[in-house]
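Q: Joint fold for the lines below.
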Amino acid sequence: MNSALSLWLFYLLCVVFAPILVLGTIRKTKARLQNRIGPPLLQPLFDLVKLCRKSETLSKTMCGIFRLASVISLADMLLIAWIAPWLCYKPGPDSADIFLIFYLFALTRMFTMLGALDSGSAFGAFGASREATLSLLVEPAALLGFISIGALTGSSDLLQILSFSNAQLSGSPGIWLLVGTAVLLANLVESSRMPVDDPTTHLELTMVHEAMILEASGRNLALIEYTHALRMTILLGLSVQCFMRAIPSIWNAEPAVQGLINLTGIFFLAVLIGIFESISVKLQWRKVPEFIAYSLTMSLLASLIAIGGRAMK
Amino acid sequence: MKYKTDSARLNTTISPLSQTDATAANYRKRNANLVPSALIFAIASGVLLSLVHQGNHLHLIRTAPPMVLGVFPLSFQCDGLASLFMGLLSIILISISFYSPSYLNHFKDRIQMGGYWTAMFLFVGSMYGVVLSADAVTFLVLWEIMSLSSAALVASDYSHRVVQKSAMIYLGATRIATALLCGGFLAMHAVTGSWSFADWTFSSSSSYVAGCLILLAFCIKAGIWPFHIWLPYTHPAAPSTVSALMSGFTIKIAIYGIMRILVCGGLNSPEIINLALFLGAVSTFWGILFALVQNDLKRLLAYSSIENIGMILIAIALGLKAKLAGLEALALVAFVAATFHCMNHGLFKSLLFLCAGTIDTQAHTRDLRRLGGLAKQMPWTAACFLGGSLAICSIPPLNGFASKWLIYQTFFKTTYETSSYLDRGIAFAGICLLSVVGGLTIATFVKAIGVSFLGNARSKSAEIAREAKLGMVVAPLFLLIVCVTLGVGAAQSVPFIAKALVETPGLQSLASPDQLQATVQFPIPMNMIALSLFSMSALIYMFFLKTSRTRKYSTWDCGFGTLSTRTQVSSDSFAQPMARIFRPILKYQAKLKIDGDDCRHFPEKVNVEVQMVSILESRIYLPTLALISHASKYLAKLQAGSIHLYLLYVCITLVVLLLVGVHL
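A: Joint structure:
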């Protein structure tokens, strides 16, 4: 088997299974910390399969944009998985513009919000309103982080930003750590994880994502759940990529080792999220901007480094 | 008895006649809109064809000065920049000509069509003329015709009190703009001794005052903060055809003026550039923040225009800054970004205004609190509005993303190409600003679509609304197709605009045509993105979702029984979390009042009132106006209509002049 084909196979396996395993890992970690055995790692997959066999209930109020939204979201997320360098080795285009990736994320978000408004239910609509608020705050934080490194590299192309032979950034692991953390914190907000939103509890307590997809069922719900997990995995992958650049020994390692570290890093972060979700409580809605401020602070520090960085040369 | 039969016979003989009379009159009335619309279509497509026909020869007409009208020669000239804007105007006009006949039929009792069309033709002609004019006097004359005819158009439906007020506000704004413009032009004439734009350069400090005046005049016309007050009044009051044209093109003429006079004139005063950057940044943020909390669909769109025009001004200012720093390639990217965003905003904003007009005529309201569920009854309008919203939210692969990406690139390149720390910081802040504004735009338009098109109808009139006539559907659809084409073909349209700009006198120094490929690129394969998004969506739908079994049921109601339309999210409540974050700027207040004997446990009446005060209007403009009208009362006493008094003035003036003469 030639290498290109195996690369493709590896990539497809990652796209299909990594999101499921990441969700499974978080659930397993939380269960272990609560002294439960917990569901098997592949439980999210079994859930998806079960959802696919079920029939779908649609609201009479809906016009069609509801189902269109989940289809477009998945297509868009797969496109991002294809473009963005969240894995070390993957087939894909030779450029991944950071603004493009951010606005592709915005496409998914916009359609999810529209889908939530389609049923005329107040749950979905308030979820959408909160999602809009969160994204408004978190987007600058994540974008600014990548832009700071981009400014040091002189390119808005993520592949060039992350390219290993980048001599300019070899001496500054700090900026990578800052950006990686900023993206990780932003991911918690974007993926509606614990301190912002609780994805596992009863409806009244889940305020953002679960509220938006309340009306979804059957295959439609399966699509949305998978899209959501894939989004989280891509963002985790991006922060792992940043963390990897912070450690010079990984920087200079063999390609195969790097790929392995990348994957294990994603699951390590998933375990971290699980631990974090077990020991923290959900923040009051009005406190959420303060949490996002941590992410923004990291990015601002990174941008300060970028402002000063080039002038020293 | 006999008399009665006679009268009955009389009636029968007369009535068919009067009926045919009525239908003929009706027919004529409808034709009255059809013929001028066709004429507008002919003019616009003629201009467009001649532009296309010229192909790579963008110098279309070069009428030498002696085209004498009155005492002063008017001169016209068409170069790359002008032909881009003429193309934009033509496309908007073509779509408006589809839209007008059916739309104006709804207004046939309220608008005098003769006056409307006269003003419309003057407006259209003068807009073409302003774009083509090559010297200050021509520009000013046509600019005045444009302003006055558009004010007349805004006032077409003048039976309403609101319309009268809006027309007066608009007229006031244009007067101030013209005054400043005259001042600037006169000052420039004093400096250079010429009226021709080609001779005007703003590179010496003597021309800075003129430059500043001209910039402010155009800012008023463009609706830049803090002169944006007229926009949210004018657009809701004007017929949708007019507001589409005004928001789509008239405010871009101001941008064109800035490009033509200040940018081509090589403005190099850092203070003026920083002023433009500051005003642009504030209006971007201010516009979208106020758009988010509006309840009138057209007002919302008007505020969103302020945001976009601010973004365009930012791009121009960044370009001037880069040019000042000697970064020619970056300056070109910035100017291409500004021009491209002008085009794109012109297209999708007219699209959205036309859709808003369709909603207005079909549901008889633009108030978001009374709309809802229109997508099921008006699927085509809904699809167009959705497409336009995606474009304005700069979602790839639509054209809004292409131009927004260029603006982002301008900021991004400034972060590492300039040497000054301050400029780099400003660029980072600008990227932050743009992404916050992007988030707010998405929230605003999700609200606009979600509240008007999705969910359940909130009023009887929204419930019985039906899809509009063919023309009113085709017009936005046409604009949507242009938007998609420009976006998907961004790899071609961006170099095309760059080429047109480089051929403009005054901008030629930025890059020679053969350097162009290297400086302005659009590296994102928008066509591939569109193709893969479309094909993947189709595949997922065909093989996964289409085959799933579905059943229709009511929306989840928590077991409380049928949901009323009041249980949906309202326009105000959707925006509330964001409005709360920015409440110091918005002066956002929500008053909650619960009535009842034991209101703590058994509320009988719950009353929520959301209130917002525009600080600028209540604290600055209204007091200033009051002051002026108060002062003019005293001034009016001077002109009392008494000949004795006037003779006294003549006498005093004579004495004063004599004294001055003696002393000198």
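Q: Anything notable?
A: Chain B is about 70% helix and 5% strand. The longest helix of chain B spans residues 2-54.
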